[in-house]
Amino acid sequence: MxxxxxxxxxxxxxxxIAKAQQIVQKPSNDxxxxxxxxxxxxxxxxxxxxxKDSDAPSDAIVLFNGTDVNKEWxxxxxxxxxxxxxxxxxxxxxxxxxxxxxxxxxxCQLHIEWKTPSEVQGDSQGxxxxxxxxxxxxxxxxxxSYNNRTYRHGQAGSLYKQHAPLVNASRKPGEWQAYDxxxxxxxxxxxxxxxxxxxxxxxxxxxVLIQNNVSLRGPTVYIGVPEYFVKKHGPGSLFLQDHGxxxxxxxxxxxxx
Length: 257
Ligand code: MG
Fold this sequence. Notes:
By secondary structure, this protein is mainly beta. The chain has one helix and 15 strands, in the order H-E-E-E-E-E-E-E-E-E-E-E-E-E-E-E.
């Protein structure tokens, strides 16, 4: 009996050792030198950053620098916008409609600064409302969300009616605020109406991460749920929304990705 048990133990030990050897087996590094895992080309492109982080780096397209709006922007009909330049800022004029970039963009990094009126009027969605539309479809909400409750996925920094911001990083009305947006354009399936890869958005609000690579279900809609079936679209203009409030913008630059 003892002999049988001992034989069994020997067999188990052999099996265990064989298994262990199998697990720890890995390619030998004996013949690998450090330079074999070092990639030099293509060299990473050099970009000269601005002096302040909010300044346009050398490869950005400056969309508004405080003076000429007509160079890069137009109204929805392709005419010069009625939005005003006041103190170096571009101010929405109620009833004049959206403004859009003449250029079209896909995936991008966007820096944009905005300010809601210091004189507080209205509440909820009626206070300092505007918005940044990516690729003509997807709104990053601009709103005075300082002591101003509204539905959570409609406040400043929301992907309107789809994603609430992670936190409310709003400054007081009348103070300049900034969005740094990283946008990845969608990839459409062969049917041209569904996303193979949905659009994705990351947003920093005044330097605070508020949207972390969230996926969108479809273009922004006010009424109803976002469509899962979307007409295929390519690069699009950047829109700034006229929601009837004199929201101001400045220092707008974009890097195509
Ligand atoms: Mg809006």
